[in-house]
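(Protein data)
===
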Amino acid sequence: MNLYSMLAKRNAEGRPVRVGLIGAGKFGSMVLAQARKIAGYHIVAVADLDIGKARGSLKRTGWQEDEYNATSFSDAMDRGKTYVTDDAADMCAFEGIECIIEATGHPIAGTRHALMAIDGMKHIVMVNVEADVMCGPILAAKARKNGLVYSMAYGDQPAFICELVDWARSCGFELVSAGKGMNFQPEYRYSTPDTVWGYFGWSDEFVAKGDFNPKMYNSFTDGTKAAIEMAAVANGTGLDCPDDGLAFYPSGLQDLASVFKPKSKGGRLPKNGLVDIAASQEPDGREVLNNIRYGMFVTFRAPDEYTRDCFEQYGLLTDKSGWYGSMWRPFHLIGLETSVSVLSAVLRGEPTGSSKEYRGDAVATAKGDFKAGDMLDGEGGYAVWAKAIPATISTEVDALPIGLAHNVKLKNPIKRDQIVRMSDVELVDDLDVVNLRREQVTTMGPASEADK
């Protein structure tokens, strides 16, 4: 039975799927835009530290005021309305909610919210990839121990890449690589909130008219978001990050199978089983033909000659040998599609991608030379970008995850392109999350696997 039929049955029985949303920003707003159009799908509450912003998001996405005028969680459930609150802890504790969507984008808060949801016996759809890449494997393990689903968000790229990987493996193809498209040049790594708009080609006047967050857009530009998402995909699929970070190979649709295969077979990958990025620009700045800037892909190899012949007969885009093929999804609609994750968790008990293993990390890497006493300002800032590397390497050097690089002071000088170590910074705040991260490294990292 498919999700829509299962939901229709629940709705006919008067048992809607009851959901709580934490974070009413862009992603959360897109969740809200579709939620009221899905029969049997009830957003019981929206939690945001800025209640006015949350109400504004509801209004902007077409909700009528009487649809979100509930005075409590219980009132919302009883009347089929929505309660707006600034208390995520109370939301996670409320028994009537079945699934929490965490969409704040803040790694520390997101980790805490996930723990609250697990304590409250709620499934979690973790939109917050920033938290997931830092502590997702241990959060997922804690959720599973409680019989709960911890899921990536359908609509966002990591979940779609995991879906493509699952498709390739379920078909019996030999998985070679997985990734996404992105606009990137090597110099973008050193972009700051002051320079980012130039890379978008936006004037000061254009920026002034919009509600644009320069740090957020800079994290997209400098490769940090790509590192976060690809490390999360590694944790969700068992693939690996490249040893020295993502390579951002320029590639269009017609070239994926030729580029994303091992060097020993004429491609550009150091080995099979890696995640990486298909850049939408050539090194000289020209746009790549048929690029997949907003898409996701997998490459795979035919297991035998018969399958290779079928690739040709049915028009699959392959390399010249015909042995390597690719499959892709051209777009993702983020929050507009996230209900699929919620319904899969509640109705099927299945995630749409989940950080099952600790295989990859997104680690803080210096954008310049800094001295002891300087402050790091996290993703999209002036000081660091994130590099996606294998957990074997990050644990060996005790690398600082990008999610812990917000507002921390350096104890040691660091050089441009140097990976920042945990011992290089003063970690005096958020020790609950720091300790959870250390628990993940100790219990799920390479050293723990070697001891088994």
The first strand starts at residue 17 and ends at 22. The radius of gyration is 22 Å.
